[in-house]
């Protein structure tokens, strides 16, 4: 782990040139030129679900992905026409356009030399095409309605009792007012204290440099005088510099090169400097808020990230008319993703907590509550009883031979132990190791064995239960 | 609660096992909710339906024109599929009760959501 330094305002100490000249970010050339633009897009995804996300990209965009060693990131190439569809991907959290990738960057020995290299790097990068993409992307975002008000009616229309209205979805994609619903409430399930060092020059020191207040909207200012910031993610043990320093020096050079204005909170362009061991990727962000906050407007304390919910569902490979049950739905993240993406399935969700049900009901329209287990959730001691009971119940409900279950848990030890006693009805097919806000959890994909469920009350020889489908 | 959902629910009171199905439906408030017709979806759901349970539920709701069983070649019979689509997906019970046929236990339906929660004593071990 690198040292945590105080934020500096050296970037802003640099004399800001009120220079009228600026690098033109788009060419006013013929339209056909930009239509044939191809770029590499990077996407951040829940750690562990890189392959799932890559599958979605292949399915929806036809592009193959490279999965980075820097966990939680995938890269793929697209033409600019596909940009809108990229934003409709449901397994990605954030998107950026790649300016340049260095697969094996040679770091010099001393900190001074390394930082000097970063400074010189800024002027040598191929900014032109990525900035064109950024510009096109920005014009998309302006069409998106801000702070879309969510009423009971609109959420009903969206999911329509678990089957979804296909016409609406198609229209939505065309207009690019996708299913992103801005949330107002923080997602408490996310722990901001994450392992890798993330440094953006922000803080109270810089408050005096802010010229606009928080209330101001992102209106189009003088297009040549863009505001920017640099965010540096650094991971690796052999670096002799901090992300703070890299962001500062690289950012300073970017500012000199473009004559942009640095602004930590009200920026137009976010430049990303991702350093993972010897791999460096310079990018420009295409998303502001993370896409994973879509759909959920009423948060609870443990809301599941939408991208994670989507990844879990995808692991099951839902088939048309499958019945998908979430017996611990909380605020409804999983059934919502399910109903939106797999509208040909029947989604049933429930929870033993009426508060959760109320919240979920505000998010989707068709629910039931049920509790098939005696114990509550949330403590490891209880899990010793909960998990076996849960697995047993699921084996009763799922169709022998074809049924699947996907479970997310942090208590892996307990779960594996419980699973070991259920080998006659469940078979573990796949495990995904995920990192949720610093918690190391796992997602298990189970397949139901062909063995029929025998009800305890049936053990004296009556015919088998009729509720299995 | 749709009738398709009702078709999937059973009572979990201790000791009833499979005799907890089907739940006896009683409705005080019902609404018809239009849903986009998807013939493939309906056709594939037909084999999964427990027909006797469906007929019983439809009867208590006084639904008319409920087919007694799937007809031959139903997959291509649009009229049949539309009827089934309506019965399974468009009829919503908003208020009412579900009763366990074995134990008599009542589960309330409120705002379209059945509450199946049992107390500790009632659940299976």
UniProtKB/TrEMBL annotation, chain A:
Instruction: List locations, semicolon-separated.
Output: Cytoplasm
Domain THUMP, by residue range, is 170-286
**Region Disordered, annotated ranges:** 144-171
Q: Which InterPro entries does this entry report, sorted A to Z?
A: RlmKL-like_Mtase, RlmKL-like_Mtase_CS, SAM-dependent_MTases_sf, THUMP_dom
| Short name of any one Pfam family annotated for the protein | THUMP
Superkingdom of the source?
Answer: Eukaryota
Bias type Basic and acidic residues, positions: 155-171
The record ties this protein, via PANTHER family, to:
THUMP DOMAIN-CONTAINING, TRNA (GUANINE(6)-N2)-METHYLTRANSFERASE THUMP3
Q: What is this protein called?
A: tRNA (Guanine(6)-N(2))-methyltransferase THUMP3 isoform X2
Which species? Vicugna pacos (Alpaca)
From TrEMBL, chain B:
> Which Gene Ontology cellular component terms are annotated?
nucleoplasm; perinuclear region of cytoplasm
> What InterPro entries does its record include?
Trm112, Trm112-like
* Protein location: Cytoplasm, Perinuclear region; Nucleus, Nucleoplasm
CDD domains attached to this UniProt entry: Trm112-like
Q: Does the keyword Nucleus apply?
A: yes
Gene3D superfamilies with a match to the protein in the record: 2.20.25.10
GO annotation, biological process = rRNA (guanine-N7)-methylation; tRNA methylation
One GO molecular function term?
protein heterodimerization activity
The residues the entry assigns to the signal sequence are none
Which UniProt keyword terms apply here?
Cytoplasm, Nucleus
Keyword Ubl conjugation among UniProt keywords: no
Instruction: List, alphabetically, the Pfam families matched.
Output: Trm112p
The UniProt similarity line reads: Belongs to the TRM112 family.
This protein's name: Multifunctional methyltransferase subunit TRM112-like protein
Q: Could you read off the lineage of the organism from its UniProt record? A: Eukaryota, Metazoa, Chordata, Craniata, Vertebrata
